[in-house]
Write a structure and sequence with these properties.
This protein is of the alpha/beta class. The protein folds into 2 domains: 181 residues, Rossmann fold (3-Layer(aba) Sandwich); 73 residues, no CATH class. It is built from 11 helices and 12 strands. It has an 8-stranded mixed β-sheet, sandwiched between helices. A 4-stranded antiparallel β-sheet has the order 2-1-4-5. The longest helix is centred in the middle third of the chain and has 18 residues. The protein is globular. The structure holds adenosine-5'-diphosphate and magnesium ion (MG). Magnesium ion binds next to helix 1.
Length: 312
Protein backbone atom coordinates (compact mmCIF):
# COMPACT_ATOMS: atom_id res chain seq x y z
CA UNK A 1 0.00 0.00 0.00
CA UNK A 2 1.27 3.46 -0.89
CA UNK A 3 1.10 6.46 1.41
CA UNK A 4 -2.23 8.08 2.31
CA UNK A 5 -0.96 11.43 1.12
CA UNK A 6 1.87 12.21 -1.21
CA UNK A 7 2.90 15.79 -1.85
CA UNK A 8 5.32 16.53 -4.62
CA UNK A 9 7.12 19.77 -5.47
CA UNK A 10 4.27 21.89 -4.17
CA UNK A 11 4.70 25.63 -4.75
CA UNK A 12 2.69 28.69 -3.85
CA UNK A 13 3.85 32.27 -4.33
CA UNK A 14 2.19 35.52 -3.37
CA UNK A 15 2.87 38.87 -4.91
CA UNK A 16 2.60 41.59 -2.30
CA UNK A 17 3.36 45.31 -2.06
CA UNK A 18 6.69 45.96 -0.42
CA UNK A 19 5.06 48.44 1.93
CA UNK A 20 1.71 50.14 2.31
CA UNK A 21 2.57 53.13 0.12
CA UNK A 22 4.99 51.50 -2.23
CA UNK A 23 4.36 50.50 -5.82
CA UNK A 24 7.12 47.97 -5.65
CA UNK A 25 5.98 44.44 -5.46
CA UNK A 26 7.81 41.45 -4.18
CA UNK A 27 7.29 37.76 -4.53
CA UNK A 28 6.87 35.76 -1.37
CA UNK A 29 7.59 32.12 -1.82
CA UNK A 30 5.20 30.92 0.86
CA UNK A 31 5.61 27.27 -0.12
CA UNK A 32 8.71 26.51 -2.08
CA UNK A 33 8.86 23.07 -3.59
CA UNK A 34 7.65 20.96 -0.69
CA UNK A 35 7.57 17.18 -1.08
CA UNK A 36 6.69 14.55 1.49
CA UNK A 37 4.65 11.40 2.11
CA UNK A 38 2.25 10.72 4.94
CA UNK A 39 1.82 7.06 5.81
CA UNK A 40 -1.55 5.58 6.74
CA UNK A 41 -2.15 5.90 10.48
CA UNK A 42 0.74 8.22 11.08
CA UNK A 43 1.03 11.80 12.25
CA UNK A 44 3.36 14.31 10.66
CA UNK A 45 4.16 17.35 12.75
CA UNK A 46 4.88 20.47 10.71
CA UNK A 47 6.86 23.02 12.68
CA UNK A 48 8.44 26.37 11.92
CA UNK A 49 8.16 29.94 13.11
CA UNK A 50 5.35 32.25 12.08
CA UNK A 51 5.47 33.03 8.35
CA UNK A 52 7.33 29.87 7.38
CA UNK A 53 4.47 28.71 5.14
CA UNK A 54 2.79 26.07 7.30
CA UNK A 55 -0.77 27.30 6.84
CA UNK A 56 -0.30 27.92 3.14
CA UNK A 57 0.98 24.36 2.77
CA UNK A 58 -2.02 23.03 4.71
CA UNK A 59 -4.48 25.01 2.57
CA UNK A 60 -2.81 23.94 -0.67
CA UNK A 61 -2.85 20.27 0.35
CA UNK A 62 -6.60 20.46 0.91
CA UNK A 63 -7.03 22.56 -2.23
CA UNK A 64 -8.70 25.26 -0.19
CA UNK A 65 -6.22 27.30 -2.15
CA UNK A 66 -4.86 26.36 -5.54
CA UNK A 67 -1.14 25.70 -5.57
CA UNK A 68 0.88 27.30 -8.40
CA UNK A 69 2.42 23.98 -9.25
CA UNK A 70 3.13 20.57 -7.84
CA UNK A 71 1.05 17.55 -7.13
CA UNK A 72 -1.00 16.24 -4.24
CA UNK A 73 -2.01 12.59 -4.26
CA UNK A 74 -4.59 11.50 -1.72
CA UNK A 75 -5.30 7.76 -1.71
CA UNK A 76 -3.50 7.65 -5.05
CA UNK A 77 -5.85 10.22 -6.59
CA UNK A 78 -4.24 13.27 -8.10
CA UNK A 79 -6.17 16.20 -6.60
CA UNK A 80 -5.21 18.40 -9.56
CA UNK A 81 -7.26 16.11 -11.79
CA UNK A 82 -10.22 15.76 -9.49
CA UNK A 83 -13.39 17.54 -10.58
CA UNK A 84 -15.06 20.07 -8.30
CA UNK A 85 -17.89 17.79 -7.22
CA UNK A 86 -15.54 14.91 -6.56
CA UNK A 87 -13.34 17.23 -4.54
CA UNK A 88 -16.31 17.91 -2.32
CA UNK A 89 -16.72 14.25 -1.53
CA UNK A 90 -12.98 13.84 -1.03
CA UNK A 91 -13.13 16.71 1.47
CA UNK A 92 -15.31 14.54 3.69
CA UNK A 93 -12.32 12.29 3.92
CA UNK A 94 -9.91 15.15 4.75
CA UNK A 95 -10.98 17.46 7.53
CA UNK A 96 -9.34 20.60 8.81
CA UNK A 97 -9.25 22.01 12.33
CA UNK A 98 -8.27 25.64 12.73
CA UNK A 99 -6.52 27.57 15.44
CA UNK A 100 -9.47 29.55 16.69
CA UNK A 101 -12.58 27.49 17.41
CA UNK A 102 -14.54 30.63 18.19
CA UNK A 103 -14.39 31.79 14.59
CA UNK A 104 -14.62 28.32 13.06
CA UNK A 105 -17.88 27.50 14.88
CA UNK A 106 -21.09 29.22 13.88
CA UNK A 107 -22.07 31.42 16.88
CA UNK A 108 -25.78 30.89 16.18
CA UNK A 109 -25.66 27.13 16.15
CA UNK A 110 -26.01 24.91 19.15
CA UNK A 111 -23.57 22.03 19.47
CA UNK A 112 -26.33 19.67 18.42
CA UNK A 113 -26.75 21.38 15.06
CA UNK A 114 -23.00 21.67 14.50
CA UNK A 115 -22.56 17.93 14.94
CA UNK A 116 -25.81 16.58 13.51
CA UNK A 117 -25.79 18.57 10.25
CA UNK A 118 -22.76 16.88 8.65
CA UNK A 119 -23.99 13.49 9.88
CA UNK A 120 -27.31 13.99 8.11
CA UNK A 121 -25.98 15.86 5.10
CA UNK A 122 -23.52 13.11 4.25
CA UNK A 123 -26.08 10.44 5.23
CA UNK A 124 -23.69 8.92 7.72
CA UNK A 125 -26.56 8.08 10.04
CA UNK A 126 -30.32 8.17 9.68
CA UNK A 127 -32.60 10.65 11.49
CA UNK A 128 -33.56 8.10 14.11
CA UNK A 129 -30.02 7.51 15.28
CA UNK A 130 -28.46 10.94 14.83
CA UNK A 131 -28.90 12.04 18.43
CA UNK A 132 -27.27 8.90 19.69
CA UNK A 133 -24.31 9.42 17.36
CA UNK A 134 -23.94 13.08 18.41
CA UNK A 135 -23.72 11.97 22.04
CA UNK A 136 -21.13 9.34 21.15
CA UNK A 137 -19.01 11.96 19.38
CA UNK A 138 -19.30 14.29 22.36
CA UNK A 139 -18.07 11.49 24.62
CA UNK A 140 -15.21 10.77 22.21
CA UNK A 141 -14.00 14.34 22.55
CA UNK A 142 -14.32 14.42 26.33
CA UNK A 143 -17.66 16.22 26.57
CA UNK A 144 -21.14 14.84 27.32
CA UNK A 145 -24.82 15.08 26.54
CA UNK A 146 -25.16 18.31 28.56
CA UNK A 147 -23.32 20.17 25.82
CA UNK A 148 -25.94 19.46 23.17
CA UNK A 149 -27.90 22.61 23.91
CA UNK A 150 -24.93 24.92 24.27
CA UNK A 151 -23.91 27.76 21.99
CA UNK A 152 -20.21 28.50 21.33
CA UNK A 153 -20.23 31.53 23.66
CA UNK A 154 -21.43 29.35 26.52
CA UNK A 155 -18.32 27.19 26.40
CA UNK A 156 -14.65 27.65 27.23
CA UNK A 157 -11.98 27.79 24.52
CA UNK A 158 -10.96 24.21 25.21
CA UNK A 159 -14.56 22.99 25.07
CA UNK A 160 -15.13 24.83 21.80
CA UNK A 161 -12.05 23.22 20.29
CA UNK A 162 -13.35 19.83 21.44
CA UNK A 163 -16.58 20.53 19.54
CA UNK A 164 -14.59 21.56 16.44
CA UNK A 165 -12.62 18.32 16.70
CA UNK A 166 -15.89 16.40 17.11
CA UNK A 167 -17.25 18.05 13.99
CA UNK A 168 -14.17 16.98 12.04
CA UNK A 169 -14.76 13.41 13.24
CA UNK A 170 -18.39 13.27 12.10
CA UNK A 171 -17.46 12.20 8.58
CA UNK A 172 -14.98 9.52 9.72
CA UNK A 173 -12.15 11.12 7.75
CA UNK A 174 -8.90 9.36 6.87
CA UNK A 175 -6.95 12.57 7.35
CA UNK A 176 -7.17 15.43 9.80
CA UNK A 177 -5.19 18.57 9.15
CA UNK A 178 -4.91 20.52 12.39
CA UNK A 179 -3.49 24.01 11.88
CA UNK A 180 -2.21 25.35 15.22
CA UNK A 181 -5.14 23.68 17.02
CA UNK A 182 -3.93 24.57 20.51
CA UNK A 183 -2.21 27.91 19.87
CA UNK A 184 -5.18 30.03 20.91
CA UNK A 185 -5.72 28.12 24.15
CA UNK A 186 -4.37 28.72 27.63
CA UNK A 187 -1.18 26.79 28.25
CA UNK A 188 -2.94 24.75 30.94
CA UNK A 189 -5.55 23.62 28.40
CA UNK A 190 -3.11 22.93 25.57
CA UNK A 191 -1.88 19.65 27.05
CA UNK A 192 -5.46 18.40 27.49
CA UNK A 193 -6.26 19.01 23.85
CA UNK A 194 -2.97 17.47 22.68
CA UNK A 195 -3.89 14.43 24.78
CA UNK A 196 -7.28 14.32 23.10
CA UNK A 197 -5.56 14.22 19.70
CA UNK A 198 -3.33 11.40 20.95
CA UNK A 199 -6.37 9.55 22.20
CA UNK A 200 -8.21 9.92 18.89
CA UNK A 201 -5.13 8.84 17.00
CA UNK A 202 -4.84 5.71 19.11
CA UNK A 203 -8.53 4.82 18.95
CA UNK A 204 -9.21 5.52 15.29
CA UNK A 205 -5.83 5.07 13.57
CA UNK A 206 -6.52 8.31 11.75
CA UNK A 207 -3.65 10.07 9.93
CA UNK A 208 -2.83 13.62 10.84
CA UNK A 209 -0.91 16.63 9.74
CA UNK A 210 -0.36 18.56 12.93
CA UNK A 211 0.84 22.10 12.36
CA UNK A 212 2.36 24.17 15.14
CA UNK A 213 5.00 26.83 15.68
CA UNK A 214 5.79 25.05 18.93
CA UNK A 215 8.15 22.11 18.63
CA UNK A 216 7.44 21.20 22.21
CA UNK A 217 3.83 20.43 21.26
CA UNK A 218 4.65 18.84 17.92
CA UNK A 219 6.97 16.32 19.53
CA UNK A 220 4.23 14.86 21.72
CA UNK A 221 1.87 14.08 18.92
CA UNK A 222 4.10 13.31 15.93
CA UNK A 223 5.55 10.14 14.48
CA UNK A 224 7.45 12.18 11.92
CA UNK A 225 8.48 15.81 11.97
CA UNK A 226 8.96 18.28 9.15
CA UNK A 227 10.72 21.56 9.88
CA UNK A 228 9.88 24.48 7.58
CA UNK A 229 11.79 27.67 7.04
CA UNK A 230 10.80 30.33 4.49
CA UNK A 231 8.56 27.92 2.65
CA UNK A 232 11.14 25.16 2.39
CA UNK A 233 11.54 21.92 4.26
CA UNK A 234 14.91 22.24 5.96
CA UNK A 235 14.75 18.97 7.86
CA UNK A 236 12.42 16.01 8.04
CA UNK A 237 12.38 12.49 9.39
CA UNK A 238 11.19 10.36 12.25
CA UNK A 239 10.62 12.17 15.54
CA UNK A 240 13.44 10.17 17.02
CA UNK A 241 15.87 11.43 14.41
CA UNK A 242 14.74 15.03 14.09
CA UNK A 243 14.26 15.67 17.78
CA UNK A 244 17.14 13.69 19.24
CA UNK A 245 19.60 13.98 16.39
CA UNK A 246 18.86 17.34 14.74
CA UNK A 247 21.16 18.13 11.84
CA UNK A 248 20.03 21.50 10.54
CA UNK A 249 21.18 24.57 12.50
CA UNK A 250 17.61 25.91 12.46
CA UNK A 251 16.23 22.71 14.01
CA UNK A 252 19.03 22.80 16.55
CA UNK A 253 18.09 26.39 17.38
CA UNK A 254 14.40 25.44 17.76
CA UNK A 255 15.31 22.67 20.15
CA UNK A 256 17.71 24.86 22.14
CA UNK A 257 15.11 27.54 22.48
CA UNK A 258 12.13 25.38 23.34
CA UNK A 259 11.77 27.24 26.58
CA UNK A 260 12.37 30.68 25.08
CA UNK A 261 10.08 32.61 22.76
CA UNK A 262 12.17 32.73 19.62
CA UNK A 263 9.15 31.63 17.60
CA UNK A 264 7.19 34.84 17.93
CA UNK A 265 9.46 36.58 15.47
CA UNK A 266 8.16 37.08 11.91
CA UNK A 267 10.51 35.84 9.24
CA UNK A 268 12.36 38.63 7.49
CA UNK A 269 11.49 38.29 3.83
CA UNK A 270 13.37 41.41 2.81
CA UNK A 271 16.53 39.45 2.42
CA UNK A 272 16.82 38.30 -1.16
CA UNK A 273 16.67 34.54 -1.16
CA UNK A 274 16.28 34.07 -4.90
CA UNK A 275 19.65 32.43 -4.70
CA UNK A 276 21.41 30.33 -2.12
CA UNK A 277 20.27 28.67 1.07
CA UNK A 278 17.11 30.14 2.63
CA UNK A 279 18.73 30.00 6.04
CA UNK A 280 21.90 31.77 4.94
CA UNK A 281 21.13 35.15 6.61
CA UNK A 282 20.79 33.55 10.04
CA UNK A 283 23.10 30.59 9.78
CA UNK A 284 26.05 30.23 12.13
CA UNK A 285 27.82 27.61 10.02
CA UNK A 286 27.42 29.15 6.57
CA UNK A 287 30.12 29.43 3.98
CA UNK A 288 30.49 30.96 0.50
CA UNK A 289 28.79 28.10 -1.27
CA UNK A 290 25.62 28.61 0.81
CA UNK A 291 25.24 32.10 -0.63
CA UNK A 292 25.56 31.04 -4.26
CA UNK A 293 23.98 27.60 -4.46
CA UNK A 294 20.62 26.38 -3.28
CA UNK A 295 20.84 23.14 -1.34
CA UNK A 296 18.51 20.19 -1.90
CA UNK A 297 17.20 17.81 0.73
CA UNK A 298 19.58 14.91 1.20
CA UNK A 299 19.45 11.81 3.34
CA UNK A 300 17.38 8.65 3.58
CA UNK A 301 13.75 7.95 4.34
CA UNK A 302 14.25 8.30 8.10
CA UNK A 303 16.06 11.60 8.01
CA UNK A 304 16.64 14.31 5.44
CA UNK A 305 18.29 17.70 5.76
CA UNK A 306 18.69 20.78 3.57
CA UNK A 307 22.28 21.72 4.26
CA UNK A 308 25.56 21.56 2.33
CA UNK A 309 27.37 20.55 5.47
CA UNK A 310 26.01 17.03 5.04
CA UNK A 311 26.49 16.89 1.27
CA UNK A 312 29.48 15.36 -0.42
P1 LIG B 1 2.68 30.21 8.84
O1 LIG B 1 1.38 29.50 8.84
O2 LIG B 1 3.87 29.31 8.94
O3 LIG B 1 2.73 31.30 9.85
P2 LIG B 1 1.76 31.30 6.31
O4 LIG B 1 1.54 30.14 5.41
O5 LIG B 1 0.57 31.90 6.95
O6 LIG B 1 2.86 30.92 7.42
O7 LIG B 1 2.50 32.45 5.50
C1 LIG B 1 3.68 32.24 4.74
C2 LIG B 1 4.04 33.54 4.05
O8 LIG B 1 3.09 33.82 3.04
C3 LIG B 1 4.06 34.75 4.96
O9 LIG B 1 5.08 35.61 4.55
C4 LIG B 1 2.72 35.37 4.74
O10 LIG B 1 2.75 36.74 4.99
C5 LIG B 1 2.48 35.07 3.28
N1 LIG B 1 1.04 34.92 2.96
C6 LIG B 1 0.21 33.98 3.43
N2 LIG B 1 -1.03 34.10 2.91
C7 LIG B 1 -0.96 35.17 2.06
C8 LIG B 1 -1.91 35.83 1.20
N3 LIG B 1 -3.17 35.39 1.09
N4 LIG B 1 -1.48 36.91 0.50
C9 LIG B 1 -0.21 37.34 0.59
N5 LIG B 1 0.74 36.76 1.37
C10 LIG B 1 0.37 35.71 2.10
MG1 LIG C 1 -0.22 29.58 10.20
Amino acid sequence: MGPLLSVSELKKRYEVKKSLFSRDREIIRAVDSVSFDLKYGSTMGIVGESGSGKSTLARCILFLEKPDSGRVFFKDEDLMDVKKNELRSLRRDMQIIFQDPYSSLNPRKKVYETLSEPLLFHRIVGRDSVRERVIEILMDVGLNEDFIEKYPHEMSGGQRQRVAIGRALTTNPSLIVADEPVSSLDVSIQAQIVNLFLDIKEKTGISMLFVSHDLNIVRFISDDIMVMYKGMVVETGSKQEVFYNPLHPYTQMLIDSIKGDFFKKEVDYNTDISQGCPYFPRCSIRNDRCKKDTPVLIGDKDHKVLCFRYAN
